[in-house]
Write a structure and sequence with these properties.
By secondary structure, the chain is mainly β. The two termini are 76 Å apart. The strands form 18 sheets. Strands 40, 42, 43, 45, 46, 47, 51, 54 and 55 form a nine-stranded mixed sheet that branches. Strands 16, 18, 21, 22, 23, 25, 28 and 29 form an eight-stranded mixed sheet that branches. It is built from two helices and 74 strands. A hairpin with a 2-residue loop joins strand 42 and strand 43.
Amino acid sequence: MLLLTSFLAGMDMHELEEQVVIEETGARSGADATVVAITTPKETTCNDQGCRNTLQVGEETTFAAYIKNDGTADITEMSYSVTVYLTDSSRAVGDVAKDANGNDLIWSNTDVMCDDASVCLYDGTTDPLTAGSFLGGGKSTLQLPSGGGDITWTPIRGEYMVSISVGAPGDVDTANNAELVYVLVEDWYDVEVDLVWVADADGDGTAEELESSSFDASSTEGDIDFKLKVTADGSDTFDPRNVTVRVAFSPGSQATGTLGGQTLTINDVVAGTDATVDTYQNETDPNATTTDTRKVLSYQTTWEMSGSVTPGTASDASWELTAEIVEYTMYGQYEECVESSDASEGNENVTTWNNLCEVAQEGDDRPRTDSDMISGSSDVYDDIRISRMGIYQGYNSDCTGAASTFTQEGEDGDLNVGCSLIYADVEHRGSKMTKEYGWNVSYTVSLDGNQLDSGVLTECLQGTDMPYSWAPLGIMGGSVCMFTTMEPGQYTIDFSLHMNDKSSTDTDPVPWSGGTDMRTSNNDVTMIVDVINNLPVITSFELTSDLPIVVGQEAPLVFAVSAFDVDDPSGDGLNFNYTYPGGWIDGCAGSQASGATVCTTPVFPSFIGNFPVTVVVTDEHGGEVSKEIDHFVWNSVVTTATSDAGVEIQYSVNYSGVSEFSITTFTDANAADYAEEQLEGYTGTYAAVAALDYAPSFTKDSSEVLDQSVSVIVAKDLGATSLWYIDSNSKWVILSDAATDVDATTEKFTYVVPSDLPIMGPGKMILMGGELAQATVPDAAVSGFDAEATRGGAIAMSWDITGTLLSSDSIRVCVSPGQALSLPDCAGAFNTTVADEDRSYTYSGSQTTHGETYHVEVAVCNEQGCSTPGIKDVTADKQVDGDVAASNFGVSAQDDTWVFTWEITGDTSDVAMWHVCWSTEDFTAGGMPTDADFCPGTMGADATTLTVDMPAIRTGQEYFFTAVPMDNLGNMDAAASMNSITDTRIADNSNDNDGTGTIGDTGDDTSSSVPTWTWGLIGGVVIVAFIAGAFILSRGDGEGGEGKDWDY
């Protein structure tokens, strides 16, 4: 396992590509449409060397996937859809991507399969998708509805997650209905080189560019013109500099030529227009910028240079022109431009400057356009060439099935291992298409420099949609191909086309002309490709047996695995092995064909404990992946012991651990020690008929025990009626109060240990005689019970007791919000015991919520339960309901009284009276006075006026007032002051020198402007006000103090 773990840790997980199930194992009962792999577009994988399987901007792609019925029933209706999501390097699914017109990139086809072949792609009535079958027999290219053709996407630059999903009515497992692949779309850049002949081909006196690369000069007089054309193209602005193109002239006989006024031999031409440009810029110093003159090839603007060929006087003159890019220069922030400071002692920081500079480039993203060739002759020009060469892949390991990809020579990208078809198209390129040529292709295939195969090819009869049999090359082209099974490494494939040098004989079925190939440079193609092994992918691995697993159980363990190899869609080349920490699982190894996708094994003792099982899937090329599932296997023991008196114990337990469980002590004890026992839950006293000391070899916590039971077997004539256990804390526990017959003379008491208890520890087993008399609930009961809501949300309860309370009885109270929890449990609710003499109890309003209903029970209880309880549901009331409030509050002074008026808004059904509260200071709802002296009231829900006496002392102060409602329980709202009035009564300043004075009096009979006794009264008022304010603040339900309801 350590070696396997190390291997997996070092594995390049980017090689895990298309994930597909290959065989039905543990299939779901019913139809199960499954997307098992997306093959087009391929998933982009990246590492330090770059990314593979990227798309280029504007490169149109279709969508293809393996879609399978992974269930047991036929699928007769099906739909599928494609959605492209935005993502980033995290590969998390983002928003739905949009096309250039702002449309969501979502395509749906609800008519994939149905009962009407004229509407749907597949007729589900005559050709349903049967269990275990792939849609279309393998890979399916997704189609638009109504015969709209392939679903296609023309991507723009970005990172995407492509989702393909499938749907079918009655699908039993929708979790496997979709797959996602990550796709990176990059910009592309291309310098395209073209050579074209320029001549008057149709005799109208106007020279024009010819499409043909071969020029027949037999009827032409004078020079023959041509053009060299260079274009910078790409998905984004691309302005290369100093694009150097090498033009080579291969004359035959007396032909000569010129290019741009220079004699044509091997000429290096720099394409572009002179311009002054930056050649270097320092990132941090704009002034440190250098400029120079460069020839710039402007984006999507074709640069041209003209030339000509002079055939000479020879009748068999021939020539060839080739042009190819040598190099060009790009300007920007490249790795070559980076500068870094060196770390030094005391300064470990390294500074990096991403400068701009010029960097030479030798290639681009489309190398097939980096060169071109034209030819000509003054006589019949014989030429054949290999026009295209590439490799088809996607076949099964035995080379059956259809290809899913084609990689052409010159394209970037790696190939996969497995069966591959090496393919080439050949064509006539001479000047006389009616002159046909005999031909053949020789080839060699090498891997890492070692030749594997060689031979001659003349046809292509397998592996393509259009088989080809040999024929002379004329107007119609030909093709050759060969199958090979590729292994990981670098392949070099050489194809060489040969023209037969003699005419056909009369015995040839198709006549052809001989000739000498006048241009052999286009006859040889070498394709060098890197081949990687895509690792198999395990798509599911599960235990299909029932849980839990117990050693020695009758039913075997059955493991089922599904895997897929994109290099071998049939899966015939996959092998499976199953391991656990003890080694390989016997009998569980082999290929898919041998049934090794299912592993069946008994539960051996070596499996006990944590039981991780790993399936290792290996392909034909050494690629290996694994997946682990972990289960637990319980040990199982039935142990027995017998005392000298013949009492037998049987302990059956399924537990964790490999140690053997046993009974180490089961000996007779003195039964007389238990002659007059009072047993919990039963009335009276009882005597033991047998007693035994018991001890196990070990005990385990309940978390380590699956299940357990204890049986004690005794003689019937012993007279035992119940089995008890006394634990180490001397607590008595009844195990069984009824025996079952074993035979005519013995009986058995059995106790199934609850799942939350451990293995029974050391103690005593006691067999008691005498019939057990069950204890009962109390005789005393609650009567005259009542409960009602009181002020501030409290609930007041009262009751009487009928009957006699015993010492074992207690009065219990249960209050549960929103649900009727009952005594004696009252689990999770308020539960308390009150004194025996209490006949009332108040449940605090601090524990209630206004408007919520509480279920209240009071009962007399003992260990056996409770007598009939007093029950009532009460709704807590903590505030005035109805959102009622006073508005337009007014106050006026009339003689020595204040007259208050207000209007009422809201529902007054919960209002009993109104209070007007006042203070000599402005106040908020949180600071509203609450003392009765400062909050006089008037009865009636609809009261809108109140008259009160002014204070006896004429202070001249401003007084502030508000009006609030109160309900019949005494819950009163709170509000901020609504209005105010100033006491404008004239103060009585007369003084008759009677020893008392008024405020401001300076009479001789007074020692102060304020009587001495007044200071004590003022101090008392201040203290009372301070305490009242503190009390008010302490009763707030929240911050701010607005909208409070006060309790009295």
